[in-house]
Specification:
Layout lengths: L6 E9 L4 H8 L4 H9 L2 E9 L4 E8 L4 H10 L1 H11 L2 E2 L16 E2 L21
Antiparallel strand pairs: 1-3, 1-4, 1-5, 2-3
Length: 132
């Protein structure tokens, strides 16, 4: 039996500059069905950020389920999500060679490696690790 845990995901993709205003407009009014699909499949704390100087979109979310691949497939099989992707994929350019859109074999968004995390907790640390 799998145990639920929190998995943090960060991804990036290029936003076509000529689509930035429309992309932001669409995200101000995301269809409830899409949000429900995310919720049903254990996606929480989702944010999407835009960095105009490099035309980057940066997505961050937490996955709290126990079978990430299964839940991602289920989201991809959702009809409203597929309609959303058909709308938004045309506004984006993937960094992954051969990628042709969301939900396909080659990922549309590129996973970004986490190199540091601070969640608050204890401030105790080893002085040895801070020698410059």
């Amino acid at each position: 039996m799998s145990v639920s845990h929190t998995k943090r995901i960060c991804q990036t993709i290029k936003l076509k500059p000529e689509c930035a205003d429309e992309y932001k407009k669409r995200h101000r009014n995301v269809c409830p069905g899409i949000l429900n699909a995310l919720r049903r499949h254990h996606i929480v704390d989702y944010s999407n950020n835009h960095y105009p100087p490099l035309d980057f979109l940066i997505a961050n979310f937490k996955y709290t389920g126990s079978d990430f691949d299964k839940d991602m497939k289920a989201i991809g099989d959702d009809e409203e999500t597929q309609r959303w992707w058909r709308l938004t994929d045309g506004m984006q350019e993937s960094f992954n060679d051969g990628a042709s859109g969301s939900g396909k074999e080659i990922p549309w968004w590129t996973d970004v490696e986490e190199v540091f995390r601070f969640e608050g907790g204890s401030s105790a640390w080893c002085v040895e690790s801070c020698r410059w």
